[in-house]
Each structure stands twice: as C-alpha cells, then as structure tokens.
Amino acid sequence: MEIWLCKAFNIAQQQNNWPIAPIMLNTDGPDLVKASKDFWMRADPVHLRIEQNHIMLADSQAFQISKEEAEQIVQDLNRNLSHQYGFSLLPLRPDRWYIRTSRTPAMQTYTLGQVTCMNINNFLPTGSESITWHKIFNEIQMLLHDHPVNQARESRGELTINSVWFWGGGDMPQSIQSPYTHIWSDHDLPRALALASNINFSKLPSNADEWLHAEIAGNHLIVLDTLLVKAKYRNAYSWHETLKNLEKEWFFPLLKALKKGKIDQLIITALNENSSQDFIIRRSSLWKFWLLPQPLPSFISRH
Questions:
Q1: Reduced to 3 states, what is the DSSP secondary structure of residue 6?
Q2: Cβ–Cβ contacts within 10 Å for residue 49, how many?
Q3: Each residue of 138-158: pLDDT tens digit?
Q4: Contact, 163 vs 203, CB < 8 A?
Q5: CA pair distance 73, 71, nearest whole angstrom
Q6: Rounded to 5 degrees, what are φ and ψ at 272?
Q7: Among 6, 93, 209, 213, which residue's beta carbon has the most beta carbons within 10 A?
Q8: In this predicted model, what pLDDT tens digit does every residue of 275-291 receive, in sequence order?
Q9: C-alpha 196 chain-centroid distance
Q10: Are strands 200-202 and 182-184 parallel, antiparallel or unpaired?
Q11: Which of the 8 DSSP states describes residue 128?
C-alpha cells in the first residue's frame, strides 16, 4: 500500500528507495524535518522468527510496544552503535523509529509492507554500502537478544523486539501533488500525504452512510485497509468475515448511492504483493443489463 500511495501522489523513488521516512517525519517530528538537512530513514522495531531455512518478519501489527520500552531499547542501541557508525535512532513513535545520518548511504531498501510475513533473505538491503548495514542489522539483533525489555516481554508471553527493519530513506520531496480533494483513513501515511499536499484529511467513518451524510463534493480517497493485516498474517476466517462486513457497511451502500446519483463514479483498487487492479463503476455501467453479476472469486482468478 505504501508504494501505491507514493505513486498516486506522484512521489518518485530516490536511489530506488520510497522516501516515506521524511514524509512521515513531517507529522511525527515536523520541527526536525524543517530544521535539519540530514538524511532520514525508518528503522522500525520488528520480531524475527526462524523457520527451517528462512527468517520470517512480523511488524507492529502483530505486537504491542510501549513508549517506555521503545525509549529504553533505543537508548541502549544508540549507546553501542552511534559512535561507531555515526548515526542515532529516534523513537518518535513507539512503533516508528527513525535513523538520522549526515550523509545518504548508497543503499536500496524494501518497504516494511513488502517484507511483513515474508522471508527477509529475499529483501535485505542492496547497494555498495549494504554490507555495512547488514553488519549493523546483525549487531542490533545481538544487542537485543538478551535485552532486559525482551526478557520481561518473554516472561509475559509477548513477542520480543529482536530486530529493526531499515527502509523508506530519502529527502522530503519538493512537491507532493494530490489527485484527491479529501482523504479518509485510519492509516498514518495517508494523513501525512494529505498534510504534505495541503488537502483535507478525516478519520475513516464507520460506514459509507456516515461518509455520504457529510455531503462533501470532490474527488475522495477512502482507504479501507482492514483486510490487509488479515491477508498478510494468513487469517482466512477473519479475512472472510471482514470482507462480508465491508460489503454490508461500504460496498452495498455505495452501490445504492451510485444508483441514486449521489456519486458519479466509483473506483475500487485492489492490491496484492505484485500488482494492483482497478474496478471502475459509473452510473452508465448500471444500465448494462447484459453484464451479469459474477462472484468475487471469478475476478480473483481472472486477474
């Protein structure tokens, strides 16, 4: 989803990295991004699990981490690493950590969304300086292995914070252009993009009827990402139940609104790890009686 949003807002890659760190920093630490010309990269806390011949990554959607835990871990990491490697970590949010360096490393990374619940061996940083960051990656894991915070978490039966994931490095884009007039989402990246492009942002309504009741004209982006976590973590039953809820609370009311002329066009964009698919519905589409309704699996297999 991060990559799709960057493309939707005409944000280009920087050295093959999507510059999400400086965009998010604009909301997490606006004074830092305005006052500093340093390079910023995300180094988010994650849990790694060894599976036979590969290593799987779980992000903060699979665990909770408190502000105190994050600050204690980062303080110890900075004490051991900052002098040697010339950077410092900042836990501006418990689950969003940032790296600040005086120069741009020659390294390409993958987004956290790309690697969550995947084998990290296929997604490690590449580039002429990647070996140094692989070393830092390994040292951080060694420092976190017996860390007091993780010992306490393990005793409570919680997932340990045994690594970080480097990604999203870059400089703040000079211009972020939005094709939308209003964004509705509970996700922080769309909120940051709305702020950067100076357009309206609102928390996601509970259903389409509530959104329609606002009667705000324009081109709206509504981010319905409740299926994302279920899909990544292979929770088939919850995914199916969530999809049924989306049908009831969003898609069926939007279809009725389209029939009544309350909206002119609906574009449903479905994403997976490799591609996206747009389903475009206009009022005129509803008159095509010869197009019979088809079950969702038929579209999945087709695309």
A1: helix
A2: 12
A3: 999 999 999 999 999 999 999
A4: no
A5: 6
A6: -135, -170
A7: 6
A8: 888 989 988 877 776 66
A9: 17
A10: parallel
A11: T
Supply the DSSP string of 227-290, one letter for each residue. HHHHHHTT-HHHHHHHHHHHIIIIIHHHHHHHHTTS-SEEEEEEE-SS-EEEEEEEGGGGG-TT
Give Cβ neighbours of residue 109 (< 8 Å, ≥ 6 apart): 17, 41, 125, 166, 167, 168, 169
- Secondary structure of residue 202 in the 3-state scheme: strand
Sequence-distant contacts of 49-52: CB under 8 A, at least 24 apart: 51/119
Identify any residues that bridge with 281 across adjacent strands, giving them in sequence order: 266
Longest CA–CA span in the chain (Å) reads 69
Calculate the average pLDDT of the chain. Answer: 91
H/E run at residue 222: strand 220-222
Residue-wise DSSP of 42-101? EEEEEEEEEETTEEEEE-TTS----HHHHHHHHHHHHHHHHHHHSEEEEEEETTEEEEEE
Is the pLDDT score of 295 beyond 80? no
pLDDT value at position 160? 97
Q: How far apart are CA 63 and CA 48, in angstroms?
A: 12
Amino acid at 154: E
Can you read off the two tokens belonging to residue 135? Answer: 């070393």
Give CA–CA dist 35/72, Å, rounded: 26
Amino acid making up residue 273: E
Q: What is the CA 255 to chain-centroid distance, rounded?
A: 28
The CA distance from 168 to 38, in Å, is 14
Neighbours of 274 (CB within 10 A): 5
Q: Which helix (H) or strand (E) holds 182?
A: strand 182-184
| For helices 67-85 and 130-145, angle between their N-to-C axes, nearest 10 degrees | 130
Give the span between the Cα atoms of 46 and 39, in whole angstroms.
22
